[in-house]
Amino acid sequence: MSPAAELRAAARTLRALAADATRGPWSTLPGAANVWHFLSSDSDAGGDAAPVLVVPGVGVRLGNAAWIARIHPGLAEPLADWLEAEAKKVEAGTYTDLGGPFHAACHGRFDEDCSCFDEVLAVARVINGTEEETSA
Ligand SMILES: [Zn+2]
């Protein structure tokens, strides 16, 4: 899969996951009997009326609950937009020569010398659940 395709796949995954989730922002509230309630403050999602997720709290670390709440579905669209914008940059700055894609800005092969998109590709690969994979 090309770098641009990896970035676009991650953007699609984020949008698909967010479409099936309750909109954010989310917050956490430890409830009775060791139960964590994840709440959405989005009025269309019912506000605080109904939790979007209820997790038994025994063994749940506060840090994990805070992390889940902060990385709510509201992050999907701006993150997907960024991934797609970076995909356009990859394509706009790419030329092919001698059997491989090269990045014009650094004159490096994407799979060997170019590190211009390492950070955004690392994000995409976490979302895609893939290992490092860049080829033509
Ligand atoms: Zn480069």
UniProtKB/TrEMBL annotation:
UniProt superkingdom: Bacteria
Protein name: Uncharacterized protein
Species whose genome carries this gene: Thermomonospora cellulosilytica
Lineage per the UniProt record: Bacteria, Bacillati, Actinomycetota, Actinomycetes, Streptosporangiales
